[in-house]
Amino acid sequence: MSTMVAALVFAAACGNNGGGNETGGASNAPTNAATNEASNAPTEEAAKLSGEIKVDGSSTVFPLTEAAAEEFNKLHPDVRVPVGVSGTGGGFKQFCAGEIAIADASRPIKEEEAAACKEAGIEYTELSVAFDGLSVVVSKENDFIDHLTVEELNKIFVTGSTVATWKDVRDSFPAEPIVMFSPGADSGTYDYFNEAILDKAGIRNDKAISFSEDDNALVQGVSGSKYGIGYFGFAYFEENQDKLKLVPIDGGTGPIAPSNETIKDGTYAPLSRPLYIYLNNKELERPEVKEFANFYIENIGSLAGEVGYVALPDEKYAEEAAKIQ
Questions:
Q1: Which helix (H) or strand (E) holds 129?
Q2: What is the pLDDT of residues 39-89, one digit of tens each?
Q3: Distance separating alpha carbons of residues 201 and 79, to the nearest angstrom
């Protein structure tokens, strides 16, 4: 797992290369919407933009893209940007079928997905847009958990687990049945948890666990069960912290809870992760798509904090902006 954390830190520092045609070189792309109001004002030509930009994919990335789409629409009211939430895997299926212009993803594209895109003639550009801390949560009514270790999380969720009660996890916990909630298999959050916590062994699938691609359904499930536990993006915890309790995770250096600071500096390990959008390069030839992509990268740093995520360093956004050109 330490290898995975190091890889994430390196990726954040150095950037990620997309699978399609990209141009290198740094740029000084602005990253703060408030300080760049003048640069975001539409030109006469840009103001006349119209059309539809279809986006789908990760429910974790959804709040970021929705925020960007809403702000973009204020400048370009004739451009529609519908944003779906079919999960990272579901988004890539549509993306590689040429059905959407942009895929939201809470993990990098898989080899088989990249192969499907290549077979369909879809070239793409990968852009990192923010950091997230995958958050483990229990109900506010839970009065016995103050932290969990990575090993205990593995014991609870791994396929083939015989753990049935909280006492099976830690002897000091009550002998009450565990009620588990997890994103579905099409979710990048599912994939990341499976890799970071379960060493790719897979998540159990029995009567003790419920799956949903809708993070709001997971919130409702956990908050409504005193002995429930689930996981999803940090933004969904922040939005619902009045009814959820955050569980600090001990990855080997003591219990650490996700926060803007621990997510950005990587100390919330191994559950800190970058988030992405994927652009269909052919779609970028449409002026409204390119304008939206530029707007997204120029402004998402300031929007990220508003919707519960952590912005990348300014120099990273400059690198990502250069890929769009």
A1: strand 124-133
A2: 455 555 555 899 999 999 999 999 999 999 999 999 999 999 999 999 999
A3: 44
**Pairing between strand 148-149 and 249-250?**
parallel
In the chain, where does the domain assigned CATH 3.40.190.10 lie? 2-132+275-324, 135-257
ω into 108 cis (within 30 of 0): no
Architecture of domain 135-257 in this structure? 3-Layer(aba) Sandwich (3.40)
Q: Which of 247, 187, 245 is nearest to 219 (CA)?
A: 245
Residues in Cβ contact with 70 at an 8 Å cutoff, skipping those fewer than 6 apart: none
Q: What's the CATH number of domain 2-132+275-324, 3.40.50.150, 3.30.930.10, 3.40.190.10, 3.30.70.260?
A: 3.40.190.10
Q: Which of 16, 103, 61, 11 is CA-nearest to residue 320?
A: 16
The per-residue DSSP string of 293-307 comes to HHHHHHHHHHHHHHT
The residue whose two tokens read 């304008």 is 291
Distance separating alpha carbons of residues 248 and 65, to the nearest angstrom: 28
Q: Helix, strand or coil for residue 30? A: coil
Nearest to 192 by CA among 132, 239, 138: 132
pTM higher than 0.85, yes or no? no
Phi, psi dihedral angles at 305 (to 5 degrees): -65, -30
Burial tier of 58 (Cβ tally within 10 Å: 0-12, 13-18, 19+): buried
